[in-house]
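Per reviewer request, we include the raw input and output of the structure prediction for the construct analysed in the revised manuscript.
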Amino acid sequence: MGKNSLELHFKGTESREDLCSMLRQMRRDQNMTQKELAKRVGMSQAMIAKIETGNNGCIPRVETISKLASALGFNLKMRLR
């Protein structure tokens, strides 16, 4: 089965909040805990929580977003504007 595509469009600061909530919703849609996702991508549960909440302005690297997307069954496509 092929992966779905996660297409991100970055325009400004609102994109960070959109990304955080999108990743959280994708994880929830998979009925996956933060701990399970963290284990799949080799991160701590605390870091997943920071990314999902945008805590302290946490903006994940593209490589991290790609790993998270892949662990959730998506291929990452990005478009900068």
